[in-house]
Design a protein that fits this description.
By secondary structure, the protein is α/β, with parallel strands linked by helices. It has 2 domains: 10-126, Rossmann fold; 148-292, Succinyl-CoA synthetase domains (Rossmann fold), CATH 3.40.50.261. Helices cover 34% and strands 23% of the residues. It has helices at 19-30, 61-68, 79-91, 106-118, 161-170, 192-201, 218-229, 263-272, 281-292, and strands at residues 10-14, 34-39, 47-50, 53-58, 72-75, 96-99, 124-126, 132-135, 139-142, 151-158, 176-181, 207-213, 234-239, 276-277. It has a 7-stranded mixed beta sheet, sandwiched between helices. The chain has a 7-stranded mixed beta sheet with strand order 9-8-11-10-12-13-14, with helices on both faces. Helix 8 links the parallel strand 13 (234-239) and strand 14. The longest helix has 13 residues, at 79-91. InterPro entries: Cit_synth/succinyl-CoA_lig_AS, Citrt_syn/SCS-alpha_CS, CoA-bd, CoA_lig_alpha, NAD(P)-bd_dom_sf, SUCC_ACL_C, Succinyl-CoA_synth-like. CoA binds at residues 17-20, 43, 100-102. Keywords: Ligase, Nucleotide-binding, Tricarboxylic acid cycle. Pfam families: CoA_binding (PF02629), Ligase_CoA (PF00549). Its EC number is 6.2.1.5.
């Protein structure tokens, strides 16, 4: 079992023929991901050879779905074209769109997020500015290294790409059901709460690791959700304890104003909901290990 992505997922790559898209399509294929097509209107009808695997290029997402049965799109389109790419994926009603692109204007993200809702939320959006989603041993969509962990029974949801990789590596001997990098922009599609609910419902996830960071109130809202709805053990880490007030740190959403959005406030909210919170990623991994008896 896994959440949102498994061995049967058929993946298309919007922006596959660009340098970044080419690089990561090759890596995704090497991880066993079933990449069934790329999308580029200017190169429709051609194909790209990835070490002996021919991947066709389609003119639109709709055509790619019709020809291949694709149910996941990963988007490597430059930021000024990303909104149109996501809207196209939503119009085609692809079930999952993973937006890797960073630097997207917040009003563009707000626009396609609202558009997805207007269309009935038939497309789950992960990102933008995220590393993607991996179900180890089954499928890998995005830029998460596929060789740093193995299949297991931990579910991971993280705002930070780098900390996603570190946590996967720290707990590589236990392994993961699915790891989701949701991104740290002020507006994102899939939230901590969405992932927590999915992992709670997944019979093969025994423990959830949640990584947050300063800024906003997503972690506080997740804590309230955990308290009411999650029965599985959750361990957490909040990045940014030393961040100075009023300074954006890394992600566009990581900004502290007064006591709102601080790492300490988030840590206290999570602990009040029964979440064990580590002071460092390594300590957090140790807490998970203790709970699982590893």
């Amino acid at each position: 079992m896994a959440i949102w992505l498994n061995k049967d997922s058929k993946v298309i790559v919007q922006g596959m023929t660009g340098a970044t898209g080419m690089k990561h399509t090759k890596l995704m294929l090497a991880d066993g991901t079933e990449v069934v097509g790329g999308v580029n209107p200017r190169k429709a009808g051609t194909s790209v050879d990835f070490d002996g695997t021919e991947v066709p290029v389609f003119g639109t997402v709709k055509e790619a779905i019709e020809k291949t049965g694709a149910d996941v799109s990963v988007i490597f389109v430059p930021e000024k074209f990303t909104k149109d790419a996501v809207v196209e994926a939503i119009d085609a009603e692809i079930p999952l769109a993973v937006v890797i692109t960073e630097g997207i204007a917040v009003h563009d993200t707000a626009a396609f997020w609202a558009y997805a809702g207007k269309k009935g939320n038939k497309t789950r959006i992960i990102g933008p500015n995220c590393p993607g989603i991996i179900t180890p041993g089954q499928s890998n969509v995005g830029i998460i290294p596929g060789d740093i962990t193995k299949p297991g029974r931990i579910g991971l949801v993280s705002k930070s790409g780098t900390l996603t990789y570190q946590m996967m590596y720290e707990l590589r001997d236990i392994g993961f059901s699915t790891a989701v990098g949701i991104g740290g922009d002020p507006i994102i599609g899939t939230t901590h709460i969405d992932a927590l609910a999915a992992f709670q419902a997944d019979p093969d996830t025994d423990l959830i690791v949640m990584i947050g960071e300063i800024g906003g109130d997503a972690e506080e809202r997740a804590a309230a959700f955990i308290k009411e709805n999650v029965t599985k053990p959750v361990v957490g880490y909040v990045a940014g304890f030393t961040a100075p007030e009023g300074k954006t740190m890394g992600h566009a959403g990581a900004i502290v104003s007064g006591s709102s959005g601080t790492a300490q406030a988030k840590k206290e909210a999570l602990e009040a909901a029964g979440v064990k919170v580590g002071k460092t990623p390594t300590e957090t991994a140790g807490l998970a290990r203790e709970i699982l008896g590893g």
